[in-house]
Amino acid sequence: MAQPVAAADWQRLFATQGYRRLQERESALGRAFTDSSFQAFLLQDTLAAQEPALAATVASWRDLDLAGAARRALAYLPASTTIRATMYPMIKPRPNTFVYGPGADRGIFVYVDPSLSRAKLENTLAHELHHIGYATACAGAADSARAPAVQTARTWLGAFGEGVAMLAAAGGPGTHPHAVSSAEERARWDDDVADVGPDLRRVETFLLDVLDGRLSDPDSVQRTAMSFFGVQGPWYTVGWTMATTIETVYGRPHLVAALSDPPALLAAYNSAAQARNAATGAMLSLWSDALLARLGSH
């Protein structure tokens, strides 16, 4: 039977670490997020009708294989990498899952979705844990000796970490990155991967435009780079293609060794792609020598 919520119960909710960090994150993004608006959200009849399914979902998450998800992430990171993170199951207005918080204690905010399978959730957690580990182990400091445009281009190369995280979450190049996803998600990925060649050229054009000063306004750079995320755009599909090609040809240690220097990742991919093209007749697109030279790749 529905009962009124006491003021003390609301205050206990609003004082929890997860709620406070969610409020902080939404405010940082310029989104209105107040105690009263969240209270109104929770009191909706439509949400109350979902209570049995939501409660069952949260209960089923108590024995998730978080250690297994972390092992998958760490397998694609330097051996010295440590990952510190807190998972926050969230019933909230926006149905999204994201990472937020200081580098020393990142939070993975997971939207409670009764339709989400256990395997899909563990895959998502491995993906997000890889991001956290990558940010701590492979985030290079800005090199003041490089021109600002080169620093900007090299920084954005780190977005290919999305593709490496897809590979890590799957567990290896022999497993489809959407093996535990819906048929619709898998089909969309397959369609997008089929366009990796043209998408690689699009990213290269963006990088050269930055390096040559044709794209210098920070807002324009940001807007163009962000367009490559999409649902799972070139930062994912091109990044995954590079990572799987390197691992397939040279092995995982070679791939992991290149992660901390994104231009080296592009060069390693070119070498692996050339070897694969020669051995199998594949037609994998390559990054131009001009781009690699401008980025300072060895």
Detailed description of the structure:
- This protein is mainly alpha-helical and 298 residues long.
- The chain has two domains: 124 residues, no CATH class; 148 residues, no CATH class.
- It has 16 helices and three strands.
- A three-stranded mixed beta sheet has the order 1-3-2, with helices on both faces.
- Helix 6 packs across helix 9 and helix 7 packs across helix 9.
- The longest helix has 20 residues.
- The N and C termini lie far apart (68 Å).
- The mean pLDDT is 94.
What keywords describe this structure?
298 residues; mainly alpha; 3-stranded mixed β-sheet; 3 strands; globular
Question: What average pLDDT do the residues reach?
Answer: 94
Distance between the termini: 68 Å
Strand order of the largest sheet: 1-3-2
Largest sheet: 3 strands, mixed
Q: If helices are DSSP runs of H or I spanning 4 or more residues, what is the number of helices? A: 16
Q: Helical proportion? A: 55-70%
What general form does the structure show? Answer: globular
**Strand-residue proportion:** 5-15%
How does the helix and strand content classify structurally?
A: mainly alpha
Number of strands: 3
Radius of gyration computed on alpha carbons: 21 Å
Domains counted in the coordinates: how many? Answer: 2
Task: Flag low-confidence runs.
Answer: none
Run of helices and strands:
HHHHHHEEEHHHHHHHHHH
